[in-house]
């Protein structure tokens, strides 16, 4: 079976500094794949490159059978690749409903958009209850739900989540992880970047460990969860 996303020898630099130094991985339809790794390993850079916000220095990205070679970001969204960025980036002055609708700005199927809006409110009831409030009044965890809901509003083939649990309380984090599990069970394909390696590997089909711009270890979520070096470096065991 061919992959939905194929990344081959991807290299990305900021000026002379190479932040991603030739990584390869793939995501098949229906899978949850996670990238874990230390701060500055190049995870966010990888996602930003996949969504067309950064131009690669080299390598190949193929999404849904099409090469992404300098394809503009809005085209990539239209092709079905959505990104919930690190730090959320919601629009605080717009209402929750308006933020969600922005995620669907490229869609013309009004009925489908309305259905997906209802689906987002089912997934995150708090967003439905507060749909007319300014998004800036939401708590950090609720804003994270909004960012995920907004990314889902483009009805993506692949949803990329950059640290969805960042800064959240354990309960909120659990709620976000449960939602990712629910999305997975509904067949959503997800590329997940997480600091919380335990949580990410527990629900991922495949995982890749990044260190200073390279993938140093790959395996199933289960394998990596039990790997001694991963346990030492990322799960706080000695
Ligand atoms: N705009 C930028 N200009 C210059 N260097 C940058 C820029 N953004 C990131 N970098 C550098 O690129 C490297 C990779 O950063 P990146 O944000 O991709 O890491 P990350 O794996 O997402 O880390 P974290 O877990 O802390 O979010 C780091 O060394 C970082 O300092
Ligand atoms: Mg990051």
Automatic annotation (TrEMBL):
It holds the Pfam family ABC_tran. One of its GO terms (molecular function) is ATP binding. Residues 5-237 form the ABC transporter domain. Keywords: Amino-acid transport, ATP-binding, Nucleotide-binding, Transport. Belongs to the ABC transporter superfamily. This is ABC transporter ATP-binding protein. It comes from Streptomyces lycii.
């Amino acid at each position: 079976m061919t992959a939905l996303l194929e990344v081959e020898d991807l290299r990305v630099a900021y000026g002379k500094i190479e932040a991603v130094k030739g990584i390869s991985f793939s995501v098949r339809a229906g899978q949850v794949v996670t990238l874990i790794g230390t701060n500055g390993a190049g995870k966010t850079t990888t996602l930003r490159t996949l969504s067309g916000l950064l131009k690669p220095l080299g390598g190949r990205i193929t999404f849904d059978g099409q090469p992404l070679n300098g394809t503009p970001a809005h085209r990539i969204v239209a092709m079905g690749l959505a990104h919930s960025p690190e730090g959320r980036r919601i629009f605080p002055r717009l209402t929750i409903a308006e933020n969600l609708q922005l995620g669907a700005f490229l869609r013309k199927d009004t009925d489908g958009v309305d259905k997906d809006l209802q689906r987002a409110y089912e997934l995150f009831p708090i967003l439905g209850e507060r749909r007319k409030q300014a998004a800036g009044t939401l708590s950090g965890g609720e804003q994270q739900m909004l960012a995920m809901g907004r990314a889902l509003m483009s009805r993506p083939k692949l949803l990329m989540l950059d640290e969805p649990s960042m800064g959240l309380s354990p309960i909120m984090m659990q709620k976000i992880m449960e939602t990712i599990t629910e999305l997975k069970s509904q067949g959503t394909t997800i590329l997940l970047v997480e600091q919380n390696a335990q949580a990410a590997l527990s629900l991922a089909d495949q995982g890749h460990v990044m260190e200073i711009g390279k993938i140093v270890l790959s395996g199933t979520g289960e394998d990596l969860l039990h790997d001694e070096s991963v346990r030492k470096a990322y799960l706080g065991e000695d």
